[in-house]
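Dig into these lines:

——
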Amino acid sequence: MSMLQEFKEFAMRGNVVDMAVGIVIGAAFGKIVTSLVSDIIMPPIGWATGGIDFSAMKWVIRPADASNPAHKIPEVAIAYGSFINTIIAFLIVAFAIFILVKLVNRFYTKAAAATPADVVLLTEIRDLLKSRQ
């Protein structure tokens, strides 16, 4: 079997295609959550805290120096406000995944809970035969 044929079989397996779809949807969901955090959630939080813009919060280690146009020195800063936005986005994604897994588990539990009547009857017969021995 040629390497191209092996790759084609690998790529066409259901779980690989499902994984690729999940990655694409996950990337799109990540962009939606980023927009949700930065455009919808953080402005009211900033307003409630007196107009603080978390995304602009940073600790400047070395300020920028543009006094010499030939040799500009960029600012060195730790952007902890952006980190706060990222943590909030992570918590939203984690909560959404938690809800999704909870719903899927509930669906599988309901599907597995219904035992056919013939299986129940055979189990009872088996238990009765075991108790007589």
User: Anything to note?
Assistant: Strands lie at 59-62, 76-78. Helices lie at 3-11, 14-48, 80-113, 117-132.
